[in-house]
Amino acid sequence: MNDLIKILFRLQRFIIFIILELICLYLLIQNNNIHRSSFLSSSNYVSGVLYDFKTNVSNFLDLKSTNKLLLEENTRLKNKLLLFKTNIVDTSLSHRSFKYRSANVINISVNRTKNYITIDKGSKDGIKPEMAVLSHDGIVGLVINVRSHFSTVLPIINPTFSISAKIKRNNFFGSLSWNNKSYREAVLKEIPFHAKVNIGDTIVTSGYSSIFPKEIKIGTISNFQHQDGDNFLDINVKLIVDFKQLKTVYIVENLNKEEIKTLENETTND
């Protein structure tokens, strides 16, 4: 305490000077309109900068929670859209039997021989193996392993993945799989050589599956060719999903899957 008093005593002239300066500044601002206007303008500018900085920081901190809310709302809208299609437009099972859930990608590989994706939803969220995985652009892959809070996804860009796909324009369908080279390219097989194919044609899911909804985008034809003596075309497809930019996905459950599988197994065993 004594030290503090000694310091203040040494600085008493400086402190008195500062106080007098502040008093003079106050009197100057109060009695001169020009100075008062300049001071208010400067203080408003500083306040504006500080408030803007505070707002930007708050918005940045809230960004993660905002994105989560938007993803959940988008999921609800997707489910409502399917219900609308069921009641108004399309009464087929292909629309009314699917339920969407949202999830975040927490790990992904794109340059390995066998790529995988990990998401932050598991059995406690209703996720099961053999559920379709989509992005807002199109097909991502298939759920393969599930734990309580996390799941792994087999993406299109894994050599063990294949899906029934068709050319949207003319409905010719075949089997689509990864080309084992680029994370943006796949190959579509079993399309007959007489099919009319154009570069840029859209490739979608065929709907011949109890897992994937029909006509979900997969990609577009980048090039194709016909080998002499071959009955089928060699078709390269540019995938619509950019896996390097993938952050969120939708897990799609076919509510009629078990009934379909049971029926098909019974038919096969007959």
Distance between the termini: 98 Å
Uncertain segments are 39-49, 83-95
Count of separate DSSP helical elements: 5
Number of strands: 12
* CATH domain class name of the domain at 92-269: Mainly Beta
| CATH homology group of the domain at 92-269 | Rod shape-determining protein MreC, domain 1
Roughly how many Å is the radius of gyration?
32 Å
Task: Provide keyphrases for this structure.
alpha+beta, six-stranded antiparallel beta barrel, elongated, 38% helix, Thrombin, subunit H
What is the topological layout?
Layout: H1 2-10, H2 12-31, H3 33-89, H4 93-96, E1 98-108, E2 117-119, E3 132-134, E4 139-146, E5 151-155, E6 162-167, E7 173-178, E8 185-189, E9 202-205, E10 217-226, E11 233-239, E12 248-254, H5 257-269
Describe this structure as you would to a colleague:
By secondary structure, the chain is α+β, with helices and mostly antiparallel strands. Helices cover 38% and strands 28% of the residues. The chain is built from five helices and twelve strands. The strands form two sheets. The protein has a six-stranded antiparallel beta barrel. Strands 6-7-8-11-10-9 form a six-stranded antiparallel barrel. Strand 6 (162-167) and strand 7 form a beta hairpin. Helix 2 (12-31) crosses helix 3 (33-89). The longest helix is centred in the first third of the chain and has 57 residues, at 33-89.
